C-alpha cells in the first residue's frame, strides 16, 4: 500500500505502475467520497473485466459474487463473496499475471474493501499483485491487513523546483524554496500553485509569511477554478458530484431532467477539471468534486439528487434511487424511512452490511417517531458491528436515547452489548445484554438470545457467578434443558449423556438466531466445557465446515477458540495452531477484539508448551479470559525454563481476587500447574491453600481432567507414600489428553528417581519423553530426556519423524491432497488459487520424498 496525504503523488505512482505492467491483466478501481456508499461498487470495477471466469468458480462462490455484483437476485455472505473474489482473480491469473490497482482506498465502499483485503493477504505465489493508494492506513482495513507499506513524503527542493519548471514556472530560487517549504513539498499543491494566473500575491505571502493556500485554503483555490465556469457547467458538475459511481449516462440523464445540456460539460473538460472516458466521468482530484458540490446551494443539490433518483428508478436501481430520494428530502418522511429500511435489508442480504448501516442511519434521521428513530439507529449500529465498523456503531448509538423503552430499548441494549464485546469490554457488554433481556419481557426468544450472549460476556469478564445466573435465567425462560445444560457445563458437572452435541443440536430447533447456523453455537460451547472432548471436537469439525460453507464468518470466528483448545487438549497441536491463527485473522478483519485477544493469549500458551517464548500482548480492557490465558502462558514458560520463583509469581496471580487475570475456569484448568510452581518455589503453604479451594469442586466435577489435576496436585504435596497412588490415579483420567499424561509421567518419574527406584522411574520418564517429542513440546522433551539419563537409562526410542518442517498451510495442503482433493477443491477450502496449490505441492514433493499425489496417502499425516 502507498500511503500519503492528499496530493502526495499516490495516484501518479499507481498510474505509472499500471502503465508499466505490459503483459499483465491490469484491473483498476478508484474510491469516491460519498455520504452513502454502494455496496461492492469498487469490487464491480475490479472484477467486471474478468467476470467471464465466474463459471469456473465453485457454485456457491460464483453465485455469491453474482449476487454481490448485481448479476442475480438472492443473498450472499461477505465471506463467500470474498472467497469468490480471490478465486476469480486466481482464474484470471492462470493465463497471465494480474495487477490490481486500487486508488483512494479510504473512500472505497466497506464491502469491497473487505473483499479486496481478504484477497490481498492470500495472493502469494498466485501470480497476482495488488497495489492500494490510501491517505492513511491508521484505523483503516488496510492497516489491519499487514501489507508492505510505502509512505510518501514531500518533494525535496530540487525535485520541487523541477516540478514547477515542468509546469511552466521558473520562480527565483528564493521564491521556489519558500513555496516548497510552505507546501511541505506536496506535489499537488505545487502543481495547483503553478496554475494560479496571478502569482504576485502568492509570491508575497510565501516570502513574507511563509504560507501558501494549502489544506482548506487549497480547496478554496479549487472552488475558484469551478467558479470560473459558466453557470450551466457549474450546475452540471453538481449533478456529477452527487452521482457516486461516475456513470456518464446517469449524470447526463439527470442533467437533462434539470434542463442542463450535455454540451455544458465541455467547459469543465477544457479546464481540466474532469475527464470523460469509456462512459465514466472522473474529477481530476477529489477536492474538485467536493468544491463543486459544497459551493452550490442546498436547493440545487436537493434537485440534483431528485433528478438522479428519477433516472435510477427508470433503470430499476431501486436501492440507489431510494438513497437519492432521501438525500433530496430535507425533513422527516416515514414513507421514505421505511423504503430505506427495505433497501438496507436488500443490501445486507447480498453482503453489503456496511451499506445497510448507512441506509439505516439515514432512515433514522427521516423517522417521524422517537421509537422509530431509536430502533433504526440500533439496527444501523448492529449492521456496523457485523461489518467490523465498531467506531461507526458507537457513533450511531450516541445519537440514540440512552435508555429508550420497549422494543427500541431491547434493540439499543443488544447493539450496545455487541459493540462492547467487540471493543473488548465484556463487563459492560454483560450489563447491556442483561438490561436488554429485562426489557424483552415475555418475548422468550429475544430473552434467551440476549442471555446466551450475556453468558459469553460474563465468561470473558471473569464474572463466573453472573454467567451461571444468566444460564439459570435461560432455564426459567422456556428453554429449560438448554439452560440446565449450559449451567452444568459452566459448573463442570455436565454428565456424559448430556454432553452429546447431536442431542443438544436436535433439541435446539426453536432456539433464537438470525440463521440456522446460530443453533450450532449451543452444542459447541456446552460440550467444549464438558467431559467428552473427542466427541466435542468431531462435532466442532463438522460445524466448522458447515459455517465455512455458508459464509458465517462472525460465528466461525466465535467458535475458533473452542475448536483450537479442544484440538490442543487432544494432542492435535498443528491443527490447534492452524485454527487459532485462522480465527485470529478473522477476528482482526471483523474488529472482534475480545476474540482477538483470547486467541492471541491461547497462541501464547501453545508457544510456551512447545518451548518457545510466548509473544506478549495487552489484553482488551476487562477481558479477564485473555489476561488469564497470557498469564498462564508466561507462567508455563518460566516453569519449563526452571525459573520457579517467576513461575510461581505468574501462576499464583491467577488466584488473586480482583486481579486483571482472575478467571475461575482458567484457574481450574491451571490448578495443578499453579501447585507445581508453588511447590518448586518452596511456597508449600500457598500450594495447599490452592488445593483446598480446588478440591471440593474437582471432587464433584464430571470432568476427567479435573480429577487428574486434583490427584496430580495431591501427589506433589504428599509427604508419605501416597504420591505414587495419586500419580497412578491421575494417569487413569488422561487417556485422551497426551500432554497432561506426559506431565504426570514426568513428575511420577522424577519422584521415583528421588526414591531411588530407577527402573520404575525410567519407564515413566521414557513415556514422557516420547509423548513430548511426538507433540513437539521440545523444551519439556529435553527435561524428560535429562531425567531419563539421570535415571541411568538410554535415550527414549526415536519416534517416526512424521512430516518434516512444514508450515501449517503446507500441512493443510498435503493432508487435503492426500485425501484425494483436486487443486481447485483444496483452493476453495483454503482460499488459494489452484495455481498456488500446485506451486506448493510441486515444492513439497521432493521434501516429502514422494513423486506423485497418490504417494501422499502413505505418509503419516497425523500430529
From TrEMBL:
Domain HTH luxR-type: 799-863
Leader sequence residues: none
One GO biological process term: regulation of DNA-templated transcription
UniProt KW DNA-binding keyword: yes
A family per Pfam: GerE
Entry keywords, A to Z: DNA-binding, Transcription, Transcription regulation
UniProt xrefs under SUPFAM superfamilies: C-terminal effector domain of the bipartite response regulators
Record-annotated membrane-spanning stretches: none
Superkingdom of the source species: Bacteria
Keyword field contains Transcription regulation: yes
GO MF: DNA binding
Protein name: AAA ATPase-like protein
Organism, scientific name: Amycolatopsis cihanbeyliensis
Amino acid at each position: 500500500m502507498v500511503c500519503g496525504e492528499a496530493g502526495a503523488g499516490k495516484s501518479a505512482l499507481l498510474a505509472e505502475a499500471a502503465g508499466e505492467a505490459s503483459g499483465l491483466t491490469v484491473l483498476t478501481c478508484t474510491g469516491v467520497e460519498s455520504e452513502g456508499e454502494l455496496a461492492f461498487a469498487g469490487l464491480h470495477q475490479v472484477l467486471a473485466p474478468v467476470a467471464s471466469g465466474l463459471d469456473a468458480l465453485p457454485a456457491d462462490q460464483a453465485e455469491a459474487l453474482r449476487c454481490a455484483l448485481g448479476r442475480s437476485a438472492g443473498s450472499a455472505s461477505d465471506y463467500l463473496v470474498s472467497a469468490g473474489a480471490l478465486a476469480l482473480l486466481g482464474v484470471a491469473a492462470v493465463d497471465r499475471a494480474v495487477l490490481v490497482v486500487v486508488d483512494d482506498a479510504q473512500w472505497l465502499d466497506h464491502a469491497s474493501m473487505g473483499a479486496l483485503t481478504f484477497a490481498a493477504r492470500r495472493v502469494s505465489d498466485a501470480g497476482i499483485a495488488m497495489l492500494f493508494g490510501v491517505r492513511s492506513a491508521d484505523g483503516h482495513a488496510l492497516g489491519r491487513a499487514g501489507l508492505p507499506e510505502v509512505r510518501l513524503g514531500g518533494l525535496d527542493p530540487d525535485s520541487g523546483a523541477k516540478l514547477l519548471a515542468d509546469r511552466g514556472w521558473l520562480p527565483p530560487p528564493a521564491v521556489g524554496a519558500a513555496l516548497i517549504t510552505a507546501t511541505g513539498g506536496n506535489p499537488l499543491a505545487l502543481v495547483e500553485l503553478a496554475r494560479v494566473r496571478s502569482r504576485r500575491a502568492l509570491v508575497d505571502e510565501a516570502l513574507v509569511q511563509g504560507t501558501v493556500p494549502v489544506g482548506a485554503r487549497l480547496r478554496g483555490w479549487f472552488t475558484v477554478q469551478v467558479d470560473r465556469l459558466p453557470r450551466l457547467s457549474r450546475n452540471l458538475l453538481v449533478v456529477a458530484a452527487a452521482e457516486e459511481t461516475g456513470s456518464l449516462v446517469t449524470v447526463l440523464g439527470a442533467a437533462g431532467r434539470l434542463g442542463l445540456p450535455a454540451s455544458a460539460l465541455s467547459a469543465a473538460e477544457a479546464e481540466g477539471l474532469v475527464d470523460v472516458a469509456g462512459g465514466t466521468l472522473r474529477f481530476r482530484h477529489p477536492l474538485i468534486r467536493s468544491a463543486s458540490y459544497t459551493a452550490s446551494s442546498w436547493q440545487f443539490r436537493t434537485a440534483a439528487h431528485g433528478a438522479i433518483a428519477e433516472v435510477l428508478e427508470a433503470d430499476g436501481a431501486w436501492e440507489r434511487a431510494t438513497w437519492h430520494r432521501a438525500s433530496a428530502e430535507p425533513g422527516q418522511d416515514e414513507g421514505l424511512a421505511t423504503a430505506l429500511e427495505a433497501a438496507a435489508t436488500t443490501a445486507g442480504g447480498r453482503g453489503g452490511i456496511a451499506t445497510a448501516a448507512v441506509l439505516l442511519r439515514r432512515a433514522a434521521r427521516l423517522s417521524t417517531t422517537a421509537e422509530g428513530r431509536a430502533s433504526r439507529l440500533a439496527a444501523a449500529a448492529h449492521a456496523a458491528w457485523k461489518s467490523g465498523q465498531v467506531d461507526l456503531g458507537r457513533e450511531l448509538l450516541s445519537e440514540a436515547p440512552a435508555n429508550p423503552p420497549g422494543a427500541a430499548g431491547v434493540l439499543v441494549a443488544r447493539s450496545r452489548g455487541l459493540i462492547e464485546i467487540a471493543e473488548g469490554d465484556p463487563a459492560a457488554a454483560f450489563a447491556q445484554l442483561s438490561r436488554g433481556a429485562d426489557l424483552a419481557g415475555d418475548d422468550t426468544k429475544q430473552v434467551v438470545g440476549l442471555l446466551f450472549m450475556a453468558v459469553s460476556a460474563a465468561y470473558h469478564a471473569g464474572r463466573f457467578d453472573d454467567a451461571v445466573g444468566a444460564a439459570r435465567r435461560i432455564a426459567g425462560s422456556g428453554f429449560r434443558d438448554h439452560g440446565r445444560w449450559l449451567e452444568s457445563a459452566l459448573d463442570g458437572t455436565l454428565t456424559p449423556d448430556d454432553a452429546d452435541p447431536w442431542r443438544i443440536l436436535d433439541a435446539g430447533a426453536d432456539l433464537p438466531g438470525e440463521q440456522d447456523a446460530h443453533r450450532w453455537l449451543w452444542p459447541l460451547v456446552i460440550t467444549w466445557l464438558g467431559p467428552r472432548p473427542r466427541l466435542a471436537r468431531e462435532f466442532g469439525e463438522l460445524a466448522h465446515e458447515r459455517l465455512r460453507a455458508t459464509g458465517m464468518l462472525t460465528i466461525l470466528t466465535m467458535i475458533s477458540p473452542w475448536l483450537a483448545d479442544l484440538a490442543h487438549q487432544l494432542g492435535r497441536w498443528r491443527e490447534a495452531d492452524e485454527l487459532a491463527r485462522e480465527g485470529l485473522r478473522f477476528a482482526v478483519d471483523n474488529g472482534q477484539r475480545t476474540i482477538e485477544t483470547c486467541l492471541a493469549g491461547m497462541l501464547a500458551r501453545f508457544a510456551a508448551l512447545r518451548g518457545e517464548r510466548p509473544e506478549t500482548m495487552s489484553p482488551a480492557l476487562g477481558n479477564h479470559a485473555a489476561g488469564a490465558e497470557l498469564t498462564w502462558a508466561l507462567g508455563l514458560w518460566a516453569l519449563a525454563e526452571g525459573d520457579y520463583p517467576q513461575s510461581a509469581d505468574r501462576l499464583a496471580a491467577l488466584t488473586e481476587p480482583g486481579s486483571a487475570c482472575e478467571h475461575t475456569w482458567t484457574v481450574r484448568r491451571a490448578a495443578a500447574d499453579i501447585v507445581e510452581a508453588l511447590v518448586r518455589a518452596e511456597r508449600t503453604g500457598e500450594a495447599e491453600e490452592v488445593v483446598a479451594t480446588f478440591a471440593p469442586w474437582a471432587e464433584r466435577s464430571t470432568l476427567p481432567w479435573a480429577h487428574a489435576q486434583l490427584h496430580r496436585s495431591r501427589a506433589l504435596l504428599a509427604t508419605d507414600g501416597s504420591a505414587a497412588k495419586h500419580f497412578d490415579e491421575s494417569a487413569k483420567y488422561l487417556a485422551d489428553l497426551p500432554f497432561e499424561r506426559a506431565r504426570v509421567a514426568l513428575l511420577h518419574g522424577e519422584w521415583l528417581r528421588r526414591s531411588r527406584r530407577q527402573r520404575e522411574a525410567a519407564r515413566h520418564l521414557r513415556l514422557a519423553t516420547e509423548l513430548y517429542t511426538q507433540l513437539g513440546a521440545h523444551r519439556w522433551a529435553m527435561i524428560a530426556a535429562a531425567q531419563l539419563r539421570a535415571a541411568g537409562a538410554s535415550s527414549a526410542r526415536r519416534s517416526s519423524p512424521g512430516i518434516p518442517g512444514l508450515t501449517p498451510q503446507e500441512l493443510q495442503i498435503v493432508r487435503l491432497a492426500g485425501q484425494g482433493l483436486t487443486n481447485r477443491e483444496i483452493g476453495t477450502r483454503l482460499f488459494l488459487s489452484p495455481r498456488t496449490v500446485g506451486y506448493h505441492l510441486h515444492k513439497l514433493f521432493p521434501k516429502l520424498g514422494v513423486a506423485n499425489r497418490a504417494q501422499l496417502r502413505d505418509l503419516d499425516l497425523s500430529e
